[in-house]
Amino acid sequence: MCLLLAAEADPELDERAMDRAQIELDRLAGMLPYGLRGGRAWATAVTELLGGRLGFHGTPADYERLSSSLLHEVLRRRRGLPILLSVVWLEVARRAGAPVYGLGLPGHFVVGFGDPEEGVVVDPFAGGASLGAGPAELASGPRTPARTLDIVLRILTNIRAWASTRPEHSGVALWALELSLLLPSHPASLRYERARLLVERGSFREGAAELDAYAEVVAAVDDDAAARIRAEAVSARALLN
Question: Signal sequence: where (predicted)?
């Protein structure tokens, strides 16, 4: 799924290129030791390989690059956002048979090994540095592994956030929104965000129709908010004149 969404951003990422990316993940998994047992042993081995020998990690500058959210580019550059580096950790470790899971923290994403209650957690953005029970988010309550679709939605949210500060890349924001809306579970507010973006991009009629449709949904719980959204639709249609 990460490779398919990356293909929206990179026209050169065809089926053959996707195969190469998956072959690279297989290759990396084959470099791990055989027969490891226990979360800590797996965490150490994967971190020594990816964060140590191969140098996968992130830097503040990676937040300024769209490529940091594209899996094939992260594999090539060995740089990326926390969640994409975590995807590399996850996919390499899973291919090798490790008990591994993603863990979404507020504003960050990390990887756990073994039983989530053991708290063997590493930070791929920091090259796989162990988190132990340091952050408050890890120290309190059970650690619920992130679901695959939640990971994909979070990646798309990062892409939207990147594009939102760059009006010249509103097309990127649009396809990220549209892919998010295809997921079985997503915030209903994304429909409103897409409608407003369509209006901003000059698709006044389509955007107004989307605003009206979203207003119908909102009306079931908030009449005043629905009225404001319908007023936005009227204003959008007025721009056609």
Answer: none
